[in-house]
Specification:
Elements: E1 4-7, E2 10-13, E3 18-24, E4 33-39, E5 46-51, E6 55-57, E7 65-70, E8 75-80, E9 89-96, E10 106-109, E11 113-118
Parallel strand pairs: 2-11
Antiparallel strand pairs: 1-3, 3-8, 4-5, 4-9, 5-6, 7-8, 9-10, 9-11
Length: 119
């Protein structure tokens, strides 16, 4: 069984930076595609970024967010720069076979971490 635990969320001001982490249990971390999604109340979960050998980003975060992974540490990261109030959401990490933007394609999810950006 694979377990994912996010950390690093918090309250920041517009223009600030945050780095989220996703620690993954299990010995097969390097085989998984990993992704970040985010969700605000009343809306569907939204794709943010994904990584396997290459990286993929939603247009809304391209140039501001950077996804990365450290296979030796079984950890994925999301460096978020130039944060905007519209980035406020609960951020979830996910693991699956392919780096896709569809939530249905991911098998494992973390519990989420809140990111709040004040104006």
């Amino acid at each position: 069984q694979v377990q994912l635990v996010e950390s690093g969320g918090g309250l920041v001001q517009a223009g600030d930076s945050l780095r989220l982490s996703c620690a993954v249990s299990g010995r097969t971390f390097s085989r998984y595609a990993m992704a970040w999604f985010r969700q605000v109340p009343g809306k569907e979960r939204e794709f943010v970024a994904a990584i396997r050998r290459m990286t993929y980003y939603a247009d809304s975060v391209k140039g501001r967010f950077t996804i990365s992974r450290d296979n030796a540490k079984n950890t994925m990261y999301l460096q978020m720069n130039s944060l905007k109030p519209e980035d406020t959401a609960v951020y979830y990490c996910a693991a699956g076979l392919y780096p896709e933007s569809n939530t249905q394609r991911y098998d494992y999810w973390g519990q989420g971490t809140q990111v709040t950006v004040s104006s």
